[in-house]
Design a protein that fits this description.
This protein is an alpha/beta fold. The protein is 34% helix and 16% strand. It has two domains: 302 residues, Creatine Amidinohydrolase, CATH 3.90.230; 129 residues, Creatinase/prolidase N-terminal domain (Creatine Amidinohydrolase, Chain A, domain 1, 3-Layer(aba) Sandwich), CATH 3.40.350.10. The two termini are 27 Å apart. About 1% of the residues have low confidence.
């Protein structure tokens, strides 16, 4: 209320008026509008860059069916005729059934010849699961589930607490299991193995989590196109935030820039999506979140303090965020230096900013199939040491990127995973000086290519964009 009373809406309207209305559903490319959006990078002829943005809001069910078919074929090569996944991320990846994860267990099972999945699911998700790709399943009322208690059917009783793992195994036995081996995305505890031996004698569970992760690490063209679509909004959000800072300068806090940008860009996003008046399975996992921090809080890789500081001259500043449409998208950070009262940029900040920016370019050039993650990390860290900024290095250069955010593999000295084309990584060779109260961290999505990587974002890494005077 204080922010509203102090003219927040007026300041937001002033910046919003600079932005040319663009429906990214109808015109899937960023157009010049505000002062900053005119600076967004344009594709260069012959450049290996992101694919055209998708015109869909989520991966179609046909994509999930093809993905399950690929998974089943890989399992068949290992003489496995059925699979059970208990990690919600794997259920979402394979089936497209988006759901909220809590302490309530859910699981997805399919035989080689099953045309639709079997689910273990709680009562509160019964409408979600049955209105998507649903074959059959077993529903328990809630966690903890009492035997025979289903209040929504008028059955209210204080029965014995049900062991939901045994409940699931009984359901699988009733459904029927093809073959003697079930691929599982993990390992079972000894106590669970005893229950399997009793309820499903002769059935062996085989850990196929690594196989499934390898599938998820290498993105398909459909995934990358949806990923790029989310970055159209990410790019516009960065342009809006930069215009807000340039327009209102030291009159505002980093928190206000974050709130104004997040409000503005999500209004653009949700206006373009097929939300079907709030119907389930529409607009799933779609949002842009923008986070701005100014001053000393930039010097901490993972701060435990809030981002609430008045923007001032001579500060480091970061505009960061996450974007997602249909679950696909990732980080996009840019590091700023604000000139001092005399209009000069601090030489120490310039050094840290330039080295970290150069590391971003190195990662992009080095992200080619056939090299290991460790090799890329080694070259970046060696460059940091050669430039004399090693006291300000706090973490690895990047992590793999997926629906869950952080995904293996990692650009870390101890990760020898071989890069494959269409793997996705963050881009975070950050440098932090806690004594001087400044830090510079970046991010984007770098997609592994054949000759070099490419970035999903069109937000510049230039001095023109990032060194500003207020």
């Amino acid at each position: 209320m204080a922010a509203l009373g102090a003219g927040f809406l007026g300041r937001m309207d002033a910046v919003s008026a600079m932005q040319k209305p663009v429906s990214l559903t109808d015109n899937l490319k960023a157009q010049a509008s505000g002062t900053s959006e005119a600076l967004l990078l344009k594709p260069k002829p012959g450049e290996e860059g992101p694919p055209p943005a998708a015109d869909y809001d989520r991966l179609p069910l046909d994509w999930n069916k093809r993905t399950v078919k690929r998974f089943k074929d890989l399992l068949a090569e290992r003489d496995i005729q059925a699979f059970l996944v208990r990690n919600p991320l794997n259920t979402i990846y394979l089936t497209g059934y988006w759901h909220t994860t809590t302490e309530r267990p859910e699981a997805t099972f399919m035989n080689a010849d099953d045309e639709a999945p079997w689910y273990l699911y709680p009562g509160l998700d019964r409408d979600l699961v049955k209105s998507w790709w649903f074959g059959s399943g077993e529903m328990y009322f809630d966690f903890h589930h009492a035997d025979g208690a289903f209040p929504h059917e008028g059955k209210v009783q204080q029965g014995a607490k049900v062991d939901l793992f045994e409940f699931m195994l009984e359901g699988l036995r009733k459904h029927g299991i093809q073959g003697q081996r079930i691929g599982l995305d993990g390992e079972l505890y000894p106590s669970e193995l005893k229950k399997v031996a009793r309820i499903l004698p002769g059935i062996e569970f085989v850990d196929v989590s690594e196989l499934l992760m390898e599938m998820r690490q290498v993105k398909t063209p459909e995934e990358l196109a949806l990923w790029r679509r989310s970055y159209l909004y990410h790019d516009r959000a960065h342009a809006f935030a930069r215009d807000y800072i340039l327009t209102h300068g030291t009159d505002v806090t980093d928190h206000e820039v974050s709130a104004a940008t997040t409000l503005w860009i999500n209004d653009q996003l949700f206006s373009d999506l097929d939300l079907a008046d709030g119907a389930v399975h529409h607009g799933v996992k779609s949002r842009v979140g923008i986070y701005v921090r100014a001053g000393a809080v930039t010097a901490v890789p993972h701060p435990n303090q809030p981002y609430y500081n008045r923007i001032g001259r001579g500060m480091a500043l970061q505009v960061a965020g996450m974007s997602s449409i249909g679950g696909y998208g990732h980080e996009n950070y840019r590091a700023y230096i604000i000139a001092d009262e005399d209009g000069q940029f601090d030489p120490h900040m310039q050094k840290l900013w330039t080295v970290s920016r150069n590391c971003c370019d190195m990662q992009n050039e080095l992200s080619v199939e056939g090299v290991t993650c460790s090799q890329v990390a080694y070259k970046i860290h060696k460059y940091q040491v050669e430039e004399g900024v090693h006291p300000y290095v706090y973490h690895r250069p990047a992590h793999g990127a997926g629906v869950e955010g952080h995904q293996s593999p990692y650009l870390a000295l101890g990760d020898y995973t071989m890069m494959q084309k269409n793997m996705c990584f963050s881009e975070e060779p950050g440098l932090y000086d806690s004594e001087r109260g400044c830090g510079f961290n970046w991010s984007d999505t770098i997609v592994v290519g054949e000759r070099s990587g490419y970035r999903m974002s069109r937000v510049p890494y230039s001095e023109e964009w990032c060194w500003i005077r207020l």
